[in-house]
Amino acid sequence: PAYYYEPCMLAVAMTNRDEPEDTDKITWLYLPMTQTQIERAMLRAGIDTYDDMRLCYDGSEIPDEVDVCLDFEHENIGSLNEMCETIAGLDQGNLIKLAAAVSMAKPECAMQVQHLAEQLDLFDFAPGAHSAADYGRYMIMESGHFEYDENLAGYYDFAKYGQERMEHEYGEFTDRGYISYHGTLSLDE
Fold this sequence. Notes:
Elements: E1 10-16, E2 27-31, H1 35-45, E3 53-60, H2 64-69, H3 77-88, H4 92-105, H5 110-118, E4 123-127, H6 132-142, H7 158-167, E5 170-174, E6 177-181
Antiparallel strand pairs: 1-2, 1-3, 4-6, 5-6
Helix pairs in contact: 3-5, 6-7
């Protein structure tokens, strides 16, 4: 059985492709791992090459938005491991930001998710913002871009400011909040 003796980003069951899908000859991988650990696990499972490997998702500590975009039938263990290694270095706030970036960019594989995680500084994120007013309130009160004065609270037009900002940037609302991309390359690139 799977045994979580230390925290891992992604738990994957590895079996030999020649075995039936319901085999009990399973080797567990707890990503991220070193290349040596992966090779040792392959030897224990009797798997000679990466092409002989079948991966099956078991559980993860990564955001659900990332889990949904991964196709374990077509992912290779190297890409999954590198993605997990990159994500493991993120704090909780950046994990939520990554989830929003994944919702916006809609990556199709682990390598694309890894690139998003490495480039999070190109995104601005307003957690919990689900309307122009929420976004304007976040930008004026919490982002640190402005000096908010509580005595003038009745005079701020959060919705108008949020709407004007949104018209001049590439962004969208996600379940996690509002995220916008400010890189020089297109998001696809």
